[in-house]
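With this grant's support, the team has encoded backbone shapes as discrete tokens. A representative record is reproduced below.
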Amino acid sequence: MSVIVHAPVGGPSFLKRMLRSPSAAAGLVVVAVILLAALLAPVIAPYDPNLQETANRLMPPTSAHWFGTDAFGRDILSRLIYGARPTLLLVLVVVLLMAPLGIVVGILAGFFGGLTERLLMRVTDIVMSFPRLLLAFAFVAIMGPGLINGALALALTSWPAYARQARVETAALRCSDYLAAAEMVGIKGVRLLWGHILPLVLPSAIIRLALDLSGIILAAAGLGFLGLGVRPPTAEWGSMVSEGTQVIFDQWWVAAVPGLAIFITSFAFNLLADGLRDILDPRHD
């Protein structure tokens, strides 16, 4: 039985292939700039993001305030830079919870089959039957608003797609000559799952994860927009858009600037995912 072997992840050769891909390189540069800005926010932000100056409220973009000010006189550029922190942190927590959970469930279901597969896949089907964003909103409404609660809500509703994908790939590998040869030399149990199945399942999961990152950012912004994300006065892109909608016809920049940041970040992750798909999946060569 033939098994599709994905390109290896990591190492200098992998980085070179990414830089040779126009979409991957462009997405990587934009994401790196956003990450760097978030890490260096105290250094590069021109003002305190929570400093209120009512005398300067709703000012248009000027040389003093490049992106203007909001309804409380706070500098939008400073809040935009600091707002990347909770957004990216939420995405990181979701990624660390969502993908590993889905991959583990899928590998166990695909490898053991039988009753184990039926039980795990029925749980997966139940979670998938609910609209993801609405289910996440319900979780946050129950647990209360906050960064960690929002991340948990998104992670607990987003793992089934990874489980189903990993199950299909593991089930195909289970009957392959590759695993039969590994078992013949005494490789079994956790060692077989960790050392031989996971490396073959991981590349496609990374591609899916990269494609899902833009959706996770939009979902995180949606939580902030509805007041279910980080609590005020902490800067967060979704809550900034929500505040700007109240004055969008007269002071459009208050909502447009964070909205543009969400768009650029999501687009950058989509470019990065497109490049990763070309690099890791030989079917797209």
